[in-house]
Amino acid sequence: MKELGHWINGKRVAGTSGRSADVYNPATGEVQAKVALASKAELDAAVAAAAAAQPKWGATNPQRRARVMMEFVRLLNRDMDKLAEALSSEHGKTIPDAKGDIQRGLEVIEFCIGAPHLLKGEFTDSAGPGIDMYSMRQPLGVVAGITPFNFPAMIPMWKMGPALSCGNAFILKPSERDPSVPLMLAELMQEAGLPDGILQVVNGDKEAVDAILDNETVQGVGFVGSTPIAQYIYSRGCANGKRVQCFGGAKNHMIVMPDADMDQAADALVGAGYGAAGERCMAISVAVPVGDKTADALIEKLIPRIEKLKVGPYTAGDDVDYGPVVTKAAQQNILRLVNSGVDQGATLVVDGRDFKLQGYEDGFFVGPHLFDNVTRDMDIYKTEIFGPVLSTVRAKTYEEALSYAMDHEYGNGTAIFTRDGDTARDFASRINIGMVGINVPIPVPLAYHTFGGWKKSGFGDLNQHGPDAFRFYTRTKTVTARWPSGLKEGGEFHFKQMD
After folding, report:
1. The 2-4 sheet, strands edge to edge
2. Which of 96, 169, 224, 286 has the smallest number of CB atoms closer than 10 Å to its CB?
3. Is residue 268 part of a domain?
4. 281 catalytic residue (yes or no)
5. Residues 170, 160: contact at Cβ < 8 Å?
6. Do residue 46 and residue 189 come from a single domain?
7. What total number of domains does the chain contain?
8. How far apart are CA 230 and CA 459, in angstroms?
């Protein structure tokens, strides 16, 4: 049985707490590794070592720090296949999807190569008589990231890349469900030239999380996960005087107007709703067609596409559409919610409850589901299912469709499919949601913009990656300077007359 520990001071170390968690192969349901769960003492020791190493790294020329990121990008591309294999074996997503996970993290690291420009301060000459004023962006010191199971490569890189480029030391507490890739990323960072102690990977559960939140040395915390835990981390971290950004759950709506290209909309919904088994915070889980004619046409297009989806293990080839969900508990929760939708009166148009994969009966697979006639009061509408379940809510008008997305407690992402520019522009302007797609189903911004939701999908005033990340991981120091002035006139050869 493979034993996974932590990454401390530039090397892998075994855990000492005596506690561990099982790491499953979601396709087979078998335990493939044990991961150590850190104690508070282990976490505090990792933070102390990071704090000792950080001042030298923070004083390193930003260009030299950027060169580490540049080399890290090269190493990521070199080891792409190896990383994707490890990611798929623990998470369950297909190899192409795993490579996409790594690629979107890699793009943020590429953006971080521009850190010398992003860290430039401001200067005002002659702000007053003989006075100059300038600002500097300086690292916070030791910061931490608490990252989720669904993107074990991308989100750790979204956090660590900007934090390290700014001159901080970084404590990564990844998900204990798929811990191998974060440890591999740490090894590549060291190979790229990152000094020992600047990146520490501490595996753990709530004990490690609470230790991060209560450690006085940790100055900032970033989190991605469910909304209840995001609220917990945000409130406890802020109460302890830390800078905190937390990103929570989602219920992303896609409005389909009568003038939309129905084939394009159906293809978009299938990819956005069922890709990665729906385990994405930017997955489209609610389709909102406007008018019964639009809804009927959309459902007619969706059914054959969904019924043809190939579900299987990543080892079955690149034509697999999606794999298992991450745990048995997740599988059972998804099926419980599907049953609640049926019980509460929704029409289950495509029923995947009896899905079984020969040879993988103990795997955590969930067949695709499509609901029609879903209403606001149903659990499948209110709850983030995080599985391959698409709900269709019929709206009579554009204004009613808009209200579904506007009124929901989550505000992560949304999309509209239409050929009408006025409608699209109105939608983008009025919607109270952080990321908007116009004929784009999963509107994840590129690395040089920022990623973040509104309402109960995001807590804190700065987003992930892009310029906001460099603001989050630095603090501004403003200096006002005046130097004594006096002309150097040289030697005096006569008595000066008195004034």
Report:
1. 2-4, 30-36, 20-25
2. 96
3. yes
4. yes
5. yes
6. yes
7. 2
8. 7
**Token pair of 363 as six digits:** 């795997």
Give me the residues paired with residue 11 across strands.
Answer: 8
Return the structure tokens found at 144: 């931490």
Does one domain contain both 391 and 265?
yes
CA atoms of 353 and 367, how far apart (whole Å): 6
- Cβ–Cβ under 8 Å, residues 51 and 65: no
Rounded CA-CA distance 366/313 in Å is 12
Domain span holding position 360 = 252-438
- Alpha-helical regions (H) of 167-254: 180-192, 206-214, 227-239
Residue 284 belongs to some domain of the structure: yes
Per-residue pLDDT of the chain (499 residues; tens, 9 = 90+): 899 999 999 999 999 999 999 999 999 999 999 999 999 999 999 999 999 999 999 999 999 999 999 999 999 999 999 999 999 999 999 999 999 999 999 999 999 999 999 999 999 998 888 899 999 999 999 999 999 999 999 999 999 999 999 999 999 999 999 999 999 999 999 999 999 999 999 999 999 999 999 999 999 999 999 999 999 999 999 999 999 999 999 999 999 999 999 999 999 999 999 999 999 999 999 999 999 999 999 999 999 999 999 999 999 998 999 999 999 999 999 999 999 999 999 999 999 999 999 999 999 999 999 999 999 999 999 999 999 999 999 999 999 999 999 999 999 999 999 999 999 999 999 999 999 999 999 889 998 899 999 999 999 989 999 999 999 999 999 999 998 876 556 666 665 565 4
DSSP H or E stretch at residue 13:
strand 11-13
User: Which H or E run contains 72?
Assistant: helix 62-78
Residue 172 Cα distances to 100, 139, 159, 161, angstroms: 21, 17, 9, 11
Please measure the distance between the N-terminal and C-terminal CA atoms of the chain and give it in whole angstroms.
93
**How far is the CA of 423 from the CAs of 46, 286, 298, in angstroms?**
53, 19, 19
Residue type at 23? V
Instruction: Tell me the C-alpha distance between 230 and 356, whole Å.
Output: 34
Same domain, 260 and 235: no
CATH assignment of the domain containing 317:
3.40.309.10
**Reported pTM:** 0.93
Distances in Å between the Cα of 111 and the Cα atoms of 12, 145, 160, 470, 474 are: 28, 19, 12, 11, 16
The two three-digit tokens of residue 88, written as one number:
């798929």
Q: From 126, 143, 14, select the one nearest 473 (Cα to Cα).
A: 143
Q: What is the residue whose two structure tokens read 């890290």?
A: 72
Token digits of residue 77:
């591309």
Is 349 within 8 Å of 394 (Cβ atoms)? no
Rounded Cα distance, 314 and 101, in Å: 14
Whether 274 and 266 have beta carbons less than 8 Å apart is answered as no
Residues paired with 415 in a beta bridge: 254, 437
Phi-psi category of residue 219: left, alpha or beta, with phi > 0 → left and psi -120 to 50 → alpha: alpha
